[in-house]
Amino acid sequence: MALAPYRLVWLALWAQAPPERSAALAEHFRTALAPHGEVVVHARGPYHRTPEMLHFEVDLTPRDSAPACLRALGFRQDDFGWTDWERTADGGVFLHPAVYGAQAGALEAAAAPLFRTGDVVRVRDRADARELGLAGAEVVVGHPDYDPDTAPALRTWRYSLHIDGQDDVECLDESALEPTGRRVRLYGARVGVDSDGVPTGSVYKF
User: Superkingdom, according to UniProt (predicted)?
Assistant: First the structure.
């Protein structure tokens, strides 16, 4: 099967270390993951729920398929998605002895998503938008998603959409949305990954 043009492995890492070790750990993760592809490491500082832990987020563009990369890193996939790694449960070392826990996911599609979490977009006037009562409305992008049964190289994006004054989210294809150039801050943290490899579990306020 042909590789998808867009491939992403994301990692969330928690390390038991003081803040002054953050830069050195970020560089260590970058070096350790470099054989797998192009790596960007974001050092987020002390984690808000457990301040004694440093939080890192990693975006890795793998040389091979994203699932193959995760398997090479030691992650396993079950009916619910990619399993987490935790030192107390799994033993051993993941990337560095300071790492206490890790979560991961994989995304593959025909192209990178046009929109990011927090983007304010305008809904185009078309049949599916009118059915939802959203034609012409400005909404906030939540998470990207796609049909997992479609071949990775052919997948296109759809998005969960946060609507002002409404608790429930709606979903529309990327082609139904146009950018406004504005963003809002959505508060939340990636705490899991679903069976499609898409991060889940965030709680947002906007």
Answer: Bacteria
Q: Which amino acid is at 45?
A: G
CB-based contact 108:2 (threshold 8 Å): no
13-35 burial, b for 16+ CB within 10 Å, e for fewer? bbbebeeeebeebbebbeeebee
Backbone angles phi, psi at 117, to 5 degrees: -55, 130
Residue 55 bridge partners (DSSP): 14, 45
Question: Helix, strand, or coil here: 11?
Answer: strand
Which phi-psi region, left, alpha or beta, contains residue 194 (left: φ > 0; alpha: ψ -120 to 50)?
beta
Burial class from Cβ neighbours inside 10 Å (0-12, 13-18, 19+) for residue 42 reads exposed
**DSSP, res 34:** G
CA 118 – CA 186 distance, rounded (Å): 6
Tell me the per-residue pLDDT of 138-189, one tens digit each, with 9 for 90 and over. Answer: 999 998 999 999 999 999 999 999 998 888 999 999 999 999 999 988 755 4
End-to-end C-alpha distance for the chain, whole angstroms: 41
> Where residue 120 falls among pLDDT bands split at 50, 70, 90?
very high
Check residue 174 and report its DSSP letter.
G
| Both structure tokens of 170 | 């709606």
On the 0-12 / 13-18 / 19+ scale of CB atoms within 10 A, 46 is middle
CATH fold for the domain made of 6-109: Alpha-Beta Plaits (3.30.70)
